[in-house]
Design brief:
Elements (H helix, E strand, L loop, with lengths): L2 E4 L9 E4 L1 E4 L1 H5 L3 H13 L3 E4 L5 H14 L10 E6 L9 H5 L8 E6 L3 E7 L2 E6 L3
Helix pairs in contact: 2-3
């Protein structure tokens, strides 16, 4: 995981380590073309960051993200093992799920969490909650 180290300005506190989370607004994503969105997401994940999208992706964009990810997997080279992707609200049969989005029932309030496949594990997901474990490298 990309670890971020910070120090307090007065120098009295020890450095803080953590995992970087990139929260990307709907406004920023709306100004990008599909491949620019995919590159923004994959660049973040390649850096071992967790990427959270305020408005999620369209079904076609999500498919292209998965296709592009498959071409970039290289466990022997840079260690990139792929992505884990979860969206809220979940696809538990309502009109807000993946199937509903494919049928044109877009929910603009979909939150999407994307991270390195070997560092993020979904523990539980339903229509009201995504519970995720993020491990360090």
């Amino acid at each position: 995981m990309a670890e971020v180290t910070t120090t307090d300005d007065d120098g009295g506190e020890p450095p803080t380590e953590g995992i970087q989370i990139d929260m990307i607004s709907a406004d920023r994503m709306d100004g990008l073309r599909t491949m620019e969105k995919i590159r923004l997401i994959l660049d973040g994940v390649h850096d071992d960051n967790i990427v959270i999208l305020e408005s999620g992706l369209q079904p076609e964009e999500e498919s292209k993200l998965i296709e592009r990810t498959m071409t970039e997997i290289n466990p022997d080279g840079d260690g990139f093992t792929g992505i884990e992707i979860e969206s809220y609200p979940g696809g538990s049969g309502g009109d807000n799920g993946f199937l509903g989005r494919l049928m044109g029932n877009d929910d603009p309030n979909t939150l999407t969490v994307i991270g390195p496949a070997d560092r993020i594990e979904t523990l539980h997901k339903d229509e009201t909650l995504i519970s995720t474990l993020i491990t360090r490298q």
